[in-house]
Amino acid sequence: MPSISAVIITLNEESCIERCIRSVMTVADEVVVVDSLSTDRTPEICRKLGVKFVEQEFLGYIQQKNFALKQAAYDHVLSLDADEALSEELARSIHDVKNNWKHDGYKFNRLNKFCGHWIRHTNYYPDRKLRLFDRRKGQWGGVNPHDKVVMQPGSSTGRLKGDLLHWLCETYEEHLDTINKFSTIAAREALKKGEKCSAWKVFYKPVWRFIQNYFVKRGFLDGYMGLVVSRNSAFLNYQKYAKLRNLIQLEKNKEKLQQADKEVNIASAEVSTHPETQKKE
After folding, report:
1. Cis ω on the peptide bond leading into residue 126 (within 30° of 0)?
2. How far is the C-alpha of 41 from the C-alpha of 180, rounded, in Å?
3. How far is residue 166 from each of residues 131, 169, 183, measured CA to CA in Å?
4. Using the 8-state DSSP alphabet, how is residue 219 labeled?
5. Domain limits, CATH 3.90.550.10, in the chain
6. At the top level of CATH, which class does the domain 4-168 belong to?
7. Cβ distance 171 to 115 under 8 Å?
8. N or C: which end of the chain has fewer CB within 10 A?
9. For 187-217, b where at least 16 C-beta lie within 10 A, e where not — what string?
């Protein structure tokens, strides 16, 4: 039977961290919390619950989670965010798999709670995640802020019953703040990768995202909240590509200024070395 380390990253999570920790205590042999220098009661709560508490300035979502993996005592890890918790059914599934570990990693569905409502359609569900895995066979990858566990070629994965519960946000304002934050990070990451962005892309990407969530993934079955989620998902897409397009233009303007400065410097050097100029001096 493999021992499991539950690994959680935090930053000012006093409202939810206890729920998260208690949900994994029934299946984990160790709980590790890597905290990004919280200024609320998060450290106090974690220490009260007896977890291994490590402080580390935030390195980026992917980098922070990979740092957290290294703090675990055991190779089999269960990785959660502070605003997540295991459902009772998922906890039973993990307990069962400890007695019969067959794969290198395990996926399970994530059920998101949005402004007080569990969303069972759109891209919010089943929102499948691989969070239980052998760290010798996988680590965190993807593109910030959309991190994911990437397994090595040839690794096997299975599925577990039960949901990973995720309290996404409590208010519309909170979600809009998240959209603004995540779209900025996504745009910067896309710029680093050299992604192009036409005006047409800024238009069609959000439109398709709405169609996909509301119609293809049947967001309309979640009623009004399904409409809100589909609309906000489209808005996030719009923000990402609009910001990316702006960043690309800023880079072009910067290059033009650098080129202009270079030409001015060359012209100045040519003037200073011209015979007529030297003669006058």
Report:
1. yes
2. 26
3. 13, 9, 20
4. G
5. 4-168
6. alpha beta
7. yes
8. C
9. bebbbeeeeebeeebbeebbeebbebbbeeb
For 65-82, how does the pLDDT look when each residue is reduced to its tens digit (9 = 90+)? 999 999 999 999 999 999
Q: What is the mean pLDDT of the chain?
A: 94
Instruction: Tokens for 16, please give them.
Output: 């939810």
- Beta strands 157-169 and 105-114 are parallel
Where is 208: in which H helix or E strand? helix 199-211
Name 251's Cβ contacts closer than 8 Å, sequence gap at least 6. 191
Closest CA to 6 of 93, 101, 79, 106: 79
What one-character-per-residue DSSP string does 30-99 give? EEEEEES--SSSHHHHHHHTT-EEEE-----HHHHHHHHHHT-SSSEEEEEETTEEE-HHHHHHHHHHHT
**In Å, what is the CA distance from 57 to each residue of 77, 256, 262?**
22, 36, 39
> Exposed/middle/buried for 27, CB within 10 Å: 0-12, 13-18, 19+?
buried
Confidence of residue 55 (pLDDT cuts 50, 70, 90): very high
DSSP string, 174-188: HHHHHHHHHHHHHHH
Count of residues in the chain? 281
Burial class (CB in 10 A: 0-12, 13-18, 19+), 262: exposed
